[in-house]
Amino acid sequence: MSDTPTRGILDGYRVIDCSIAMAGPFAAQRLGDLGADVIKVEPTAGEWQRFASAGGAQGNEINVSFLSLNRNKRSLAVDLKSDAGREVVRDLIAGADVFLQNYRPGVAARLGLDYESLAAINPSLVYVSMSGYGEDGPYKDRPGQDLILQAMSGAMLSAGRAGEPPTPAGQYLADAVTASTAFEAVLAALLHRERTGEGQLVTVNMLDALTTLQMQELSVYTVGGVPQKRGTEPNAHVYIRAPYGVFATSDGYLALGFADLEKLGEVLDEPSFAGLDPEVHGWTHRDELYATVARHLRERSTQHWLDTLLPAGMWVGPVYGYEDLVADPQIIHNGTFVEYDHPTEGRIKTPGFPYRFAKTPARIDRGAPLTGEHTAEILAELGVSPERTQELLDAGAVAQTAVPMPVGSSAVPS
């Protein structure tokens, strides 16, 4: 889709993506955004995520969930329960650089796609195994679902009121953090291979990813010995002094943090804040301070407080919904969202890339593929004759889907 001749940083690397749902496909997509040739190996009927639409957002041929997690990939639709299908994948592995899977425990071994089997084919392979809780241990067979992992991570009890139900994150946080962790791990393992020629097994699990994300917070507890204790007001974090949180205004909400209490008192015309030390009273009077600030902020509009508190040096910002976020001037300036044309879904507007490279920019060369869109193309690259490809199609060992001609528009910042 892009006419830009610049190659991506990972151009020349081949990634075999045998993952499903969000964390694995998101990690593989990040590799594709940087130029890797990502081949999505999926069942002949299509990956599960094609049929599970987050938010009920359906598409023409591809639902939004799948569309958002599988750009810059080619689709090989193959029956891994068949000998012929597994042979195709093994042939792919022989020339691949990265293999990524998040199968349930034992499935990879049953399919002959475990690390030992694939390392015998390709010793330089970087093999990434993703799981909910780890490769073994008492929880290895439990479902690794985002909300459950958020709950187990301890993070939910670091915000809100004591005695009230914890509030989950507004993102699929466990999946997203695990995807970024796997992405980082692949890059590190490829660097090791460049230096030594060695491939290796890399394991990533959601529970560890979310736990280590809280490096600072958990160290306050394990090293500093400070208990994780919520107060009677909805402070945004138990380990940050007041006022810190989201406050109602007369027409919306405002986020405020780390305010100098004396200066804030002057702006709010609150004499009781005079002489208060933020690093002392911000802890000892956390709930009282929150309640007082909340009472004042409810009296005026969000824009009034932004216009008043920002010039006074306060750390303050609006609480956005998605409509506000997409229209924000800084988001537009950054080119955070990109637009491109998809052959079946039309004009697509979606978040772009979290990184910038001056010489080797990330880009979108193709949108999410239809099931088996590239099966014949990939088999041809493996040296499979057209006649043999047709035999595999007739036997149901592989599948392909014909697609319309692409629109051919370059991806551009929105």
Automatic annotation (TrEMBL):
Q: Show the Pfam families listed in the entry.
A: CoA_transf_3 (PF02515)
Question: Transferase: is it a keyword of this entry?
Answer: yes
Xref: SUPFAM superfamilies: CoA-transferase family III (CaiB/BaiF) (SSF89796)
Q: Does the keyword Kinase apply?
A: no
| GO terms for MF | transferase activity
Question: What keywords are assigned to this protein?
Answer: Transferase
Q: Which InterPro entries match?
A: CoA-transferase_III_domain, CoA-Trfase_fam_III, CoA-Trfase_III_dom3_sf, CoA-Trfase_III_dom_1_sf
What name has this protein been given in UniProt? CoA transferase
